[in-house]
Amino acid sequence: MNFRVSSSPHNRTQRKTSDVMLAVSLACIPGILTQVWFFGIGVLVQIALAIAAAICAEAICLRQRNRSLTQLKDNTALLTGLLLGICLPPLAPWWVAIIGAAFAIIIAKQIYGGLGQNLFNPAMAGYVVLLVSFPVAMTLWLPPVNLIEYELSAWDMILVIFTGYSDQGYSLAQFRTSLDGFTMATPLDAIKTGLSNQQTYQEIIQQSIFSNDLGIGWMQVNLAYLLGGLWLLQRKIINWHIPLTFIVTLFLLCLFSYLAAPGSIAGPWIQITSGATMFAAFFILTDPVSASTTAKGRILYAALIAFLVFIIRNWGGYPEAVAFAVLLANMCVPLIDYYTKPRTYGHVKG
To answer: Which DSSP symbol is given to 3?
Structure first.
């Protein structure tokens, strides 16, 4: 018999990076399919563009650094492009995905030294750069396809992405008009804009994009990503500390604020079933490189992001705040890890 001598801990599960990245990508499938159902095939086009740009950028960087292109097999570039593509509006111009993915790989990952060295989550760094640089293109979200005033086929979506107009000559602005005449982005954006225009909360949720106080399409998408996230937990690809802490903290902050001032902010249920809440909880915050590495640190990290999301969503300049919150928390991770790292056995505090 052969015995392997190694240091503790001995009861560890060995997984290849490529397998973990592939598992996370597969867990996104329920959410992606739900997005396609409600927002059209443009979702797949954006994902394909972002993945292709991310892999090409990674290959170029590896070649320039005299590294082997076999590193592409770790699937990290694929996952970065996938996560970024999911976040993009379905009918955003084609160049948006390419610029965002290139920035995510070249600036947010490779300049720091590549896999395992980046301080910031690459996908969120690329998304924030796009949001700040091209705010109009990045806020061109559609109502669910069944609520759009003009019929929009798969071919029309492809044409809008690459040319700006459908086969019938309709522009993206026309497709953003829902059946009730509202031009809207997301439920959170509709609520925030309505409240700033002195509308009551009850008036706002009468729009066709809402049903039972929840956003049509967005609720189902969030539940689909929740399903994928639970599968990752079951497979022990991620641990529970970050997702549970983030969701519970955000819900409680919204609940207490909503009870203290009803109608002044979106309710707690719509806050956790709209925007990127579930997607962020299971697929963004759990990034093993840019998140905290200790159990206590993960809880503090997730709670900090929930607090920042709550503040920015309700009082900041953007209705969706996950990307900004993640990048701000990424900067705090070294400090969080320093104060939450476990002490070695026998350590005497001096």
So the answer is: -
